[in-house]
Amino acid sequence: MANFNIHPGETLLEARNIKKIYDMDGKRPRGVNPPVVLDDINLKINAGEFVALLGPSGSGKSTLLRILAGLLRPTEGQVLFKGVPQYGTNPHLSIVFQTFALFPWLTVLQNVELGLEAQEVPPTQRMRRSLAAIDTIGLDGFEDAYPKELSGGMRQRVGFARALVVEPELLFMDEPFSALDVLTAANLRKELLSLWREHKIPTRTILMVTHNIDDAVLMADRIVVLGANPGIIRVELPGLPMEQRDANNDNYTKMVDLIYRIMTSPRADIASLMPQEKKGTSSKLAPVKQQPYQVLPHVAISDVTGLLELVHSKGDREDLYQLGRDLQLEVDDLLPMIDAAHILGFAEAQEGDLILTETGKRFAEAGVLEEKDLFRQQAIKNVTMLRHIVRDLAREPSHTLPEERFLNELQQHFSEDESWSQLETAINWGRYAELFSYQEERGVFRLEEPEVVAALVS
Ligand SMILES: Nc1ncnc2c1ncn2[C@@H]1O[C@H](COP(=O)(O)OP(=O)(O)OP(=O)(O)O)[C@@H](O)[C@H]1O
Ligand SMILES: [Mg+2]
């Protein structure tokens, strides 16, 4: 075994004050600030620990994993491996990605052996160890198969075998199950977990990036929740004792519920979400930093309307977890809808519930015409981008402006792609509110009813 030189609890990997800004290879126009993807991240990974990294899409999970693995350089800060600053790729670490690049012209066995060739392990030993890894990971009998003969789940197993055969001190996984269908993913997860519990996997220290709260609660000794824009650590929670990691256990349900609440309240003070007995105890709380610029969630207003109507039908207040279940939405899909309802002043997330505001109740009850009016008022009042577009259009004698005008403003705060997405969302919301029209071919905004709309902005 490669790991007898590790002392349990020893810090293996440490991120200190990591900040990451993608500099876009110098391609960004002058005066434009690229977004801060990770801001002041401090994180330790201790020997023997299974750490899960959870967070909404775009919160920088993959970026952090790559920085910790030495595949990507942070803009500021440092990564230490056993106390020594790490430069370049860490050779003591293997990574399993969402989909695994296997060499199509090599058999399963040859693909697995590759990792050991790089380490100059002699051929007979290479074969023996690879066969053992293939056996462990459940691919016995498929040694001579080629990747194209395997299902997605089996290919991912080859990926695991290739990562584990070198007996790395650290194993990183970035959404290892999310490209698989639900059943295959559940199977592989279960097997991997029991292999790890029964010490059949040589590597004890694991970092796993995941969207899935259940995965994190089932598998991890420590759960780190990231927030987005910029990516920060919102909270670190100690995982459940092994015997409580069972969907029928009370503490399991409470834990899933707590993380769900944290993720669906991106701007809430974490302490206010903690159950009473947990407050001020072992979990490490990080303050939630102010967002530098309003970030619009990319959702259709019709989805927000649907959500508000559902909550209204339940008496204007509903448990967030229950809402996710009713709508059959993963937290990642529900979150932007809640965010939109919050930005528009229609609802607030509190203590794990979504509660309609007075305006939200009126909106949910309104007929089509009143609904448009209310939406229009709320949008102008609360959505910075829409207010700016309408204000600037109202000032122009022609009541028209090219999209560049607003893209420039957005590019001060977002990457080029995200600026376009932000503008697209603003356009969709603005059209729904009938605040302006937008001509796609020419990229031109026009104020539709200058008098009506101007009165709203003044
Ligand atoms: N190479 C890159 N150049 C510029 N921006 C990037 C690059 N890679 C990622 N980003 C941006 O950095 C932010 C964080 O991305 P990252 O992939 O780390 O997030 P994530 O949490 O892993 O998201 P997901 O859950 O969707 O995988 C995103 O806004 C993304 O657009
Ligand atoms: Mg990712």
From TrEMBL:
Keywords: ATP-binding, Nucleotide-binding, Transport. GO terms for molecular function: ATP binding; ATP hydrolysis activity. Residues 13-255 form the ABC transporter domain. Pfam families: AAA_assoc_C (PF09821), ABC_tran (PF00005). Gene3D superfamilies: P-loop containing nucleotide triphosphate hydrolases. InterPro entries: AAA+_ATPase (IPR003593), AAA-associated_dom_C (IPR018632), ABC_transporter-like_ATP-bd (IPR003439), ABC_transporter-like_CS (IPR017871), ABC_transporter_ATP-bind (IPR050166), P-loop_NTPase (IPR027417). PANTHER family: ALIPHATIC SULFONATES IMPORT ATP-BINDING PROTEIN SSUB, TAURINE IMPORT ATP-BINDING PROTEIN-RELATED. This is ABC transporter ATP-binding protein. It comes from Dictyobacter kobayashii. The lineage of its organism: Bacteria, Bacillati, Chloroflexota, Ktedonobacteria, Ktedonobacterales.
